[in-house]
Amino acid sequence: MPRKLLLDGRVVVDEWRRLAEAGAPEPGMARAGDDGSALLLTLDEWLSDRDRWLKRRGRLGVILAPAHKVERIAPDLARFDLVAAEFPNPSDGRGYTQGRQLREQRKFAGELRAIGYVRRDQLFFLARCGFNSFELPESELDGARAGFSVFSAAYQPANEAGLAVALRRC
User: Fold this and answer.
1) pLDDT > 90 fraction of the chain, expressed in percent and rounded
2) Which residue ranges form the domains of the chain, and what is each CATH number?
3) Which of 26, 51, 73, 83 has its CA at 20 to 30 Å from residue 95's CA atom?
4) Which residues pair with 5 in a beta bridge?
5) In whole angstroms, what separates CA 37 from the centre of its chain?
């Protein structure tokens, strides 16, 4: 069954595959991940075989773990169509900082995805940090869009690239 996610406020089928999901190639076929599909790599996978991935056709994305610094992908940021920040548990908010750094300091314009422990009550805040794509539990997808309209005004400025409607300033 295809994985679904919330992208730009809509429930869509996830077209990105992780390297582990790509599987082993058939004899005489290209290596896994070399078929031109949209491929999402961990930072370690990207760094360990960077030259191979640079030659690959198809779209590339990278997953940042909470401890990873955005600076590690800065030289290659233009090569990525997607950057995902991992949220391993509800109390780890380092992905919010990664999102803001990518959007505001590094001017990343591609898809910015929140993965891992992501729930409806976080969507508004993630969107204000620039996230526009969210992997949620399947049971929460249909009602999740309401999470973007929890608030209509904001006191502090933020990168609201993930929000469909700009907030009123207080």
Assistant:
1) 61
2) 4-169 (3.40.50)
3) 51
4) 12
5) 17
pLDDT at 103 over 80: yes
CB atoms under 10 Å from CB of 7, counted, come to 17
Q: Which residue has the higher pLDDT, 10 or 30?
A: 10
Place of tokens 């790509």: 22
Residue type, 168: R
CA 100 to CA 97: how far, in whole Å?
5
Where would I find the beta strands (DSSP E) of 22-71?
A: 39-42, 60-64
Please give the model's pTM, rounded to 2 decimal places: 0.85
Reference 119, options 154, 157, 90; nearest CA is: 90
In this prediction, residues 97-108 reach a mean pLDDT of 96
DSSP 35: S
Q: Which neighbouring-strand residues pair with 61? A: 40, 82
d(CA 100, CA 56): 29
Tell me the C-alpha distance between 12 and 110, whole Å.
Answer: 17
